[in-house]
C-alpha cells in the first residue's frame, strides 16, 4: 500500500506539489488569525484603584485612603478578594472578581462604590481606575531619542526634560488613539512642572479688606 502511494505521488508529482502549496498557503493564513499566544494571559478578572497622595506616609495612606476604599468595595457581587499596597504618596487597591465576570460590569460596580466613598477621603486625593491591562499585556517598549545635533525651538540641544515633554504631550496622545492600545506608561526623563510657592510672611500682611480697598482705589484712579 505504501509503495503504491509513493509510486502514485511520483507519477502525479505536479498535483502533489500543488496540494502542498495550497496547504502551505492555508496554514499561513490560519496562523495569522489564530488567537493563541505563546504566553497565555492567565490573570484573573481584576480592577485596580490607584490613588496618588503626595506627602502621605504609608501609614497615612493606609488609614485615610486604602482602608476606606477597601471597606466601600466589600460586598460587591462576584467579589472574590481584595489586596492593597500603601506606599509613600500612593495607595493601590486591587479588586479581584470571580472568573467569568465581565470586566466592564466589574469596573462599573467598583466605580459606583467609589462615588460614594469620595466624600470620606481627603480633599486632595482622587482615586482612579487602572487600565484594562495586566502585566502580560505589556507587549512593546520603545525609547524617544533625538538625532545627533538636533535642536529644539529655542535653538538648544534636546534634554531629557524636552524628550519627556515631547512624549507626554505629542507621542503618547497619538498612541492612545491606536486600536488595541489601552495605556501608555512613561518611564524616565524629567517631567516639567510649574510650582507656585507663596511666601507666608507676605500673604499674612495682605488682608482681604486691604486688597479689596486697593483694587477699588485703583479703579477710581483709572
UniProtKB/TrEMBL annotation:
Transmembrane segments: 12-31
GO MF terms, alphabetically ordered: xenobiotic transmembrane transporter activity
Alphabetical keyword list: Membrane, Transmembrane, Transmembrane helix
Pfam family for this entry, one: ACR_tran
GO cellular component, one term: plasma membrane
Top-level lineage group: Bacteria
Protein name as catalogued: Cu/Ag efflux pump CusA
Organism field: Polymorphobacter multimanifer
Organism classification: Bacteria, Pseudomonadati, Pseudomonadota, Alphaproteobacteria, Sphingomonadales
